[in-house]
Amino acid sequence: MASASSRVDAFALFVPVVVPLMLGGGGYAAYKVDWKTAITHFLTGPGRTSRILMLFFCWFNWKNLPFAWTFRVFYTIMYHHFIRKSPPLGPRALYKPMISTTRAPLLEIDYNLHKSNSTFFTDLDVSRSHLVSYLLRSTMRKLTHNTRSRLVLDPKTKEPVSGPLGILLGAVTCSFKKECPPFKQYEVWSRILCWDRKWLYVITHFVPKGTAKPTEWLDPGFRGVKVRSGQDATGGWERKIIATAISKYVFKVGRLTVNPALMLSDGGMLPERPGGWMSGEAQVGDESVDLSDVDLDKDGEWDWRRVEAERRRGMELGSRFHELDKAHDLFDGGSQGALRTAWPN
Which of 61, 190, 295, 322 has the fewest C-beta atoms under 10 angstroms from its C-beta? Predict the structure, then answer.
C-alpha cells in the first residue's frame, strides 16, 4: 500500500512466525540483561554526554532513522489487520478521512528551515496505509486466500485466480501551499476521492494539528461513530492547509486487475445499487442515471445515489490527474541532445 511492491500476503507468514520469534528473543534478552547496571553505566560511565545526546537525537528524529519507514508502514498494516480489527462502518464512512498525527523532526528540515517537500511522500505512505487497511481489511484477507474465498474469478475459465494480492501505487502528485516549521505537529487527512474500473483515487490534506475539528470521529479505535455535539468544522482552516496530494492505487490478484468497486462492495462500504456497481460499459455502474437532484453539501443518508454522486464529483478531479500519464510520451531518449551533470549520481 505504501509502494508499488506491497504484498499483503506476506503477513500470513510474518505474523504467526516472525513476530513470536522477535518477541521471544527480545524477552529472553531483556531477562538476561542487568538493567540497573546497564542504565547506571549509560548515564554515569565514560562518554555519557555523547550517549545521552545521541539518545535525545534519536528520540526526536526516530521517523527518519534507518528502517523507521518500514516499521511505520508495516506496523500500520498489522495494527488494522491483527491488533485492532474494528468492523467497517459502512457507506457512512466511505468518504470520511482517516486522520494520523506526526511532526516535522530535524532530519526533515531543508535549507529553508522548514519541512522538505520530498519528506511529504513518506507521510503519505503511512496515511494511505491507515486508510486502505482499515476500510478494506476484510476484503484484503479474502483476496490473500482467493483460491478458497473465490472472490475474484478468471473471466475466461471462471475459476478463482491464484497469486499474491498486490496493492500498487500507480501515481502520486503533491501541491504545496504553506511551509511547515521545524518540530511542528501536523495532521494527515486521507480519504477516498473516487474510483473507476482500474484505479482507486485517494486525496490527502496536510494541516496543522488541531486546525480542523471534525463533527464526527470514525477512528478505528471506536466501535461506532463518536459525535462532537455543538462543534463546528469550519474555522479558518482553509488558509492553513500545508499541502494536498492525490494518489491512485490499483489492486491485483496475480496478474489480474481487481475492480475497486468489488473491493469496496465486499468490504461493506457500498450500499445496494440497481444493476450493481460494476455494470455498464465502464464497469462503474449505470452512468446515465441523472443525479443532479442530489445535494452533496447537505447532510443526508448515504444511499447509492449519494455515493455515486460523490464518486462522479471526485472523478472530475481524478480524471484530470489521470491525464498526467500522457507525460510519459514526452520522453524522447535525448534525440534532440541532452545535458549531463558533472558528477554522475
Answer: 295
Among candidate residues 262, 210, 248, the one with its CA nearest the CA of residue 128: 248
Mean predicted confidence (pLDDT) in 126-134: 91
Strand partners, 102: 186
Cross-strand partners of 206: 188, 243
Residue 184's region, left for phi above 0, alpha for psi from -120 to 50, else beta, is beta
Residue whose entry in the numeric block shows the C-alpha cell 548515564: 43
| Angle formed at CA 94 by CA 99 and CA 209, multiple of 5 degrees | 15
Which residue is listed with cell 504545496?
Answer: 176
Instruction: Please state the pTM of the whole predicted model.
Output: 0.84
What are the residues facing 130 on neighbouring strands?
none
What are the φ and ψ backbone dihedral angles of 172, each rounded to 5 degrees?
Answer: -150, 140
| pLDDT tier for residue 59 given thresholds of 50, 70 and 90 | confident
Write the CA distances from 311 to 284, 317, 325, integer angstroms: 10, 10, 21
- Residue 61's CB is within 10 A of a number of other CB atoms, namely 14
